């Protein structure tokens, strides 16, 4: 009898605990989704005009960036650009030449624009730029946008992880190591066809000597200075272009001259894989993949990060809880492979999981997310293993065992460390942030709209184009002839129905199942 009561009591305690946990999870999730900030109310204060002789281009960041407010106190322009452009407070968006909206904290936004296109029609000359670093799948979910079509008539420019954006965000990029370039030119006596851009500022600057317009004069001196600075910084980062792989022939040729890679050997029979993960319910279903991978013989996946702390506290070193890079580096020395699994499977959605954590040069990243062709287009050549190359998880496991046993096969995936440097400075638009881009485009449009077609005006228009040409920034939606942009249909450009091929967000039941069965099995 006592046993029976005890049993029932334990059982009830467990189910009570389970229900409570579920409830708390649900509430905290719900709260995080619906925590709606107050929209910015337009500020109708008349701004002091500032310097009447030089009207700066003004930019607002209408929403915060990951919770951090951007306003007139933000220090976002360098010393050159501070003299020709300014950041306003978000409340002053009516007066800005251009506005940035980050989709991540979009909740502030709809109340302003929702279905009120009359505002947009009234302020047509404003340039609106949409900034997104999440996958279409997740940004749709977090902004709870059924009506994303409402935004279609709103934005001129985009900055996202897609290379088709006006400003392509890529956390890092790669360049050929300077010592490799030296090898190619000196030892191998090959001329290589990597030509750095190097256009000097022409003598035409004289045409501003007698210029009476303070606007044109100031702009000329600042743009020239900025052009020089950017050119120097670009040549320093990418003396032989960035993100261009060496040809296979050349890599073959270089082989005898390269320092050998000594891989760390752990165990020949057990494949050691690390996984840092913080989002426990993904669209991509990566947790199920890991669960299956782990059940393969001789495969060991150690899990670090937020999800692991639910069940397993002692396993994760304290400093690794948040997956800080330094801890990761140290930790990765104990592994031969690393899972860089994205939370969504979407077009070109390749994030810091690959760039910051994955390609460390210590363990080989195994990637899941964007398609193979997209990794080929964006990632460092031969630096990763794509799960789509294997029809079944068994085949992947088999391949991992093969690489684990054969060092010459294993180090093929680390060969890039001999050839390339990786860094934020080498990414395709490293020197083109949203703010300075809008600054330049604002002046471009203003110059373009001028009535007199003077030499000076032509010179300045050309100079701005050259600034973007330095690194071949494409700005596909900006038309340099008309100084206008075409409309971005966000519902087509950034739409999970078009760009993604994974599952919808797991339902409440599915998440409960994951939480109690899948994740508990993983630890
Ligand atoms: C839409 O915006 C205009 C001004 O931009 C305003 O006059 C009008 O009241 C707004 N309409 C709605 C429905 O909010
Ligand atoms: C490299 O090539 C140049 C001409 O192409 C030749 O004069 C020179 O001797 C070569 N040097 C070596 C080390 O082969
Ligand atoms: C500037 O003006 C001076 C005197 O008016 C003239 O001699 C000179 O040629 C002008 N320079 C240019 C570059 O137009
Ligand atoms: C490892 O792979 C290479 C081919 O890259 C092969 O020649 C060699 O025999 C393999 N070694 C072992 C121990 O299987
Ligand atoms: C930006 O987009 C708006 C809205 O579609 C459009 O009317 C306007 O011409 C564009 N602005 C510029 C400066 O190109």
What do these coordinates show?
The two termini are 35 Å apart. Helix 9 runs parallel beside helix 21 and helix 17 packs antiparallel against helix 18 (455-469). Residues 30-37 have low confidence and may be disordered. The chain has helices spanning 2-34, 79-82, 110-113, 117-122, 136-143, 178-187, 214-237, 248-254, 286-294, 306-309, 325-332, 352-358, 372-378, 393-405, 407-410, 416-419, 434-448, 455-469, 490-493, 496-499, 508-522, and strands at residues 57-61, 85-87, 98-102, 127-131, 157-160, 167-168, 173-176, 271-276, 299-304, 337-341, 364-368, 385-386, 420-423, 478-479, 484-485. 35% of the residues are buried. Among the domains are: 57-170 and 473-499, no CATH class; 254-426 and 508-522, Glycosyl transferase family 10, C-terminal domain (Rossmann fold), CATH 3.40.50. A 6-stranded parallel beta sheet has the order 2-1-3-4-5-6, covered by helices on one side. A 5-stranded parallel beta sheet has the order 9-8-10-11-12, sandwiched between helices. A two-stranded antiparallel ribbon has the order 7-13. It has 523 residues and is an alpha/beta fold. Strand 1 (57-61), helix 2 (79-82) and strand 2 (85-87) form a beta-alpha-beta unit. The structure holds 2-acetamido-2-deoxy-beta-D-glucopyranose (5 copies). Residues 116, 118-119, 122 line the site of one 2-acetamido-2-deoxy-beta-D-glucopyranose (NAG). Belongs to the glycosyltransferase 10 family. One of its GO terms (molecular function) is alpha-(1->3)-fucosyltransferase activity.
